[in-house]
Amino acid sequence: MLRAFLIDFESNWERCLPLAKFMYNNNFQSSIQMALYEALYGLKVIRDRLKVASDRQKSYADLKRQDIECIVGDKVF
User: Fold this and answer.
1) Which of 17, 22, 26, 24 is CA-nearest to residue 6?
2) What GO molecular-function term can you cite, just one (predicted)?
């Protein structure tokens, strides 16, 4: 992960350290079966709330969704 940051931030890699730390702390760790942030604070990051919001938006969008069937020769704009 750090190697990827160094490619993008080769001249100013110190700027990427907080982002690298955040990513590492929120990655799933197979040894403890959870993210380090979750283990340390007992909280899941915003991921769960984003999933709920995404599902809610999808349900609203699906209310007015209609399947469109096209056959060969139909004009599609």
Assistant:
1) 17
2) nucleic acid binding
Tokens 């991921």 sit on residue: 47
Q: Give how many domains the chain has, as a whole number.
A: 1
Name the DSSP letter for residue 44: -
Is 60 within the bounds of a domain?
no
Quick check: is 41 in a domain? Answer: yes
pLDDT in tens, 22-67: 878 778 888 888 887 777 777 666 777 788 889 999 999 888 888 8
Element (H, E) at 3: helix 2-8
Asked whether the whole model's pTM tops 0.70, one would answer no
Between CA 30 and CA 71 the distance in angstroms is: 49
In a domain, 76, yes or no: no
Q: E-assigned strands of the chain? A: 28-29, 34-35
